[in-house]
Amino acid sequence: MQYLINIYMLIRLFVVSLFFLFSLNAYLRDDLSELEKQKVDKVLSLAADFSRAERSEALSGGAGTVDKIGKNAFSHHFKNLSFEERQDFLIGNAFFRKVWIASPSSTTSSDGLGPLYNARACQSCHIKDGRGHLPKDEKPLSAVLKVGNYKNINLIPHKTYGKQFQFFAIPGLSSESALSINFMANKYINAMGSRLALKYPNYQLSSLKYGNLDNDTSLSLRISPQVIGVGLLEAIEESDILAKQDIYDKDNDGISGIARIVYDNKGIEKIGRFGIRASTPDLFVQTGTAFMHDMGLSNSVGSNAFGDCTKNQDECYKFPTGVNEKSLHEVDDEVMNKIVFYLSSLSPPKRRNVSDKDVLLGKKIFYESKCTSCHTPKYVTSKNAKHNFLKYQLIWPYTDLLLHDMGDELADKDMNGNITNKEWKTPPLWGLGYAKEVNARATYLHDGRAKTVLEAVLWHSGEAKSSLKYLLDNHKNNLDKLEKFLKSL
Ligand code: HEC
Ligand code: HEC
User: Is residue 52 part of a domain?
Assistant: First the structure.
């Protein structure tokens, strides 16, 4: 009997250690040699000396980072592109800016828009490759309102309205709804010697063309994020992201980042990196999803030539599509790949004032307040990245690409006001200081509720509660320094 137990214990030990080895292996990079691994580990250790800037700290996007300011700060490619790559960038840029039209038209290569749509060009939402904004008196153009029912993290599209509300439609069809927003204060914080009232966008839908929404339907308002540096985010090794995942908060720091698992175009499981809730794994799927749902243009990712129209929206199907005998979809893979290349080569701008005394103090506050628990400062990208200019670069995006519970106030709610999803992906912070230069109406957080970067910080709650508490308990009168640091990014 004793003998059997011993064998049993041995087998158990073997299985457990195999499992342990396997799970450890999952977090080890296989693109680097032992020596490179040691070097990378050293470079990536968190700063402890705040008396001066770190080496290469200003080069947010690695060696090819552009040094341009002003309105076009987000619209430049990396400096180290080859001649051919520069040509591809220009072609991709043309497609990103291209204004699509309804079918039928004489220019068949540009038609197929809608029937329902949110915008006619990628650039209309990602304004000058930067973020969008909430509407004031106009129809929402660079903000999107998703609709449906949550099944865990996934938003199941609404049976009639589809994945999101389209506020535009081609001639002859009316849009799904109209949206109006008024700002309401529901959070007050004493900081910087005054009482700040934080306001959130309270929105109402009117003229709902296909009937009212059920009480358990959820809505999720999002402004378009910036698209700089996305090629580098795609080039981060999966193991580097998984290494920070901590679903059950085993290290007990109150923070439990989750890597969202989604599917790529070939049905393979990948980590979600793009979208405000990390719903897409790569730039190809993200681009296809955008064509399909934002613009109503079919492609190899989303193949309905009627876009986000559902079977409960009969009228949609009376309109001609942009599919013809020469094309399977309204947008072919060649165009998609050109856009993906364009996105991949957009450089984050070089940082400003990295050695400024106040900026360094702000950086210290950022680190001490453990903002770095989610806003991971730096990575070294994969040696297997798709393009030379993305390979083995030291980059500074300030994100872990994981989902975090950010508290009740930022959460999505259903029509009854019940909270239905609190998780958001940590957004990259690079380019933060340029946001308003690129789009004067730019604001912050997923739904654009924060007018300043500081307001964005003060809305943090949930898993970021203790980080914010530390900040307010210890640095209440130095928030301007933190702001200077954030704006130097
Ligand atoms: C109607 C506005 C709109 C249009 C048009 C639009 N987007 Fe977006 N885009 C968004 C929003 C909103 C998100 C966030 C989506 C989410 O949370 O799922 C987004 C996300 C993205 C992202 C991910 C950024 C990140 O870091 O997470 C990329 C890349 C992108 N869009 C590219 C494109 C491309 C390419 C096109 C044109 C084919 C396009 N978009 C058209 C609104 C738009
Ligand atoms: C628990 C993880 C976590 C911690 C800790 C955290 N953040 Fe964030 N941060 C996020 C997430 C997630 C968002 C997006 C929330 C949203 O859009 O509703 C965000 C958004 C932001 C934004 C707005 C970015 C934009 O593009 O709109 C800023 C600025 C920011 N954080 C700064 C900070 C600072 C400063 C600290 C430390 C005091 C901090 N964060 C701590 C997860 C975190």
Answer: yes
Q: What are 424's strand-pairing partners?
A: 404
Overall number of domains in the chain: 1
Mutation test residue for ligand 2: of 253, 373, 426, the one with most atoms within 8 Å of CB: 426
Q: How far is the CA of 367 from the centre of ligand 1 (A)?
A: 30
Residue 407 has pLDDT above 60, yes or no: yes
Residue 124 CB–ligand 1 contact under 6 Å: yes
In 3D space, the residue among 449, 448, 460 whose CA is nearest the CA of residue 373 turns out to be 460
Which ligand has the shortest distance to the CA of 436? Answer: 2
Q: 226 CB less than 6 Å from ligand 1? A: no
**Rounded to whole angstroms, how far apart are CA atoms 118 and 222?**
13
Helix, strand or coil, per DSSP, at residue 101: strand
For tokens 């806003």, the residue is: 375
Give the number of whichever ligand sits closest to the CA of residue 119: 1
Looking at the domain assignment, is residue 202 inside a domain?
yes
Q: Which ligand is nearest to the CA of 288?
A: 1
- Nearest-CA residue for atom 25 of ligand 1: 274
Helix (H) or strand (E) holding 219: strand 218-223
State which amino acid sits at residue 151. Answer: K
pLDDT in tens, 412-470: 999 999 999 999 999 999 999 999 999 999 999 999 999 999 999 999 999 999 999 99
112 neighbors 305 (Cβ within 8 angstroms): yes
- Where does the pLDDT of residue 11 fall: very low under 50, low under 70, confident under 90, or very high at 90 and above? low
Whether 3 maps to a domain, the answer reads: no
pTM: 0.94
Q: Half-sphere exposure of 379 toward its Cβ, with a 13 Å CA cutoff?
A: 29
Domain hosting residue 481, numbered range: 29-489
In a domain, 482, yes or no: yes
Under the banding of pLDDT at 50, 70 and 90, the label for residue 324 is confident
State the pLDDT at residue 263: 97
247: tokens are 């679903």
For ligand 2, the distance from its centroid to the CA atom of residue 468, given in whole angstroms, is 10
Neighbours of 241 (CB within 10 A): 22
Of 307, 301, 298, 308, whose CA–CA distance to 328 is shortest?
298
Cα–Cα distance measured from residue 67 to residue 117, given in angstroms and rounded to the nearest whole number: 36
- CA 32, CA 240: separation in Å to the nearest integer? 12
Q: Is 97 in contact with 126 (CB distance < 8 Å)?
A: no
Residue 24 has pLDDT above 50, yes or no: no
Q: Which residues of 48-72 are buried (b: 16+ CB within 10 A; e: fewer)?
A: eebeebbebbbbbbbebbbeeeeee
CB atoms within 10 A of CB 160: 17
Sheet holding 218-223, edge to edge: 154-157, 143-151, 218-223, 412-414, 419-421
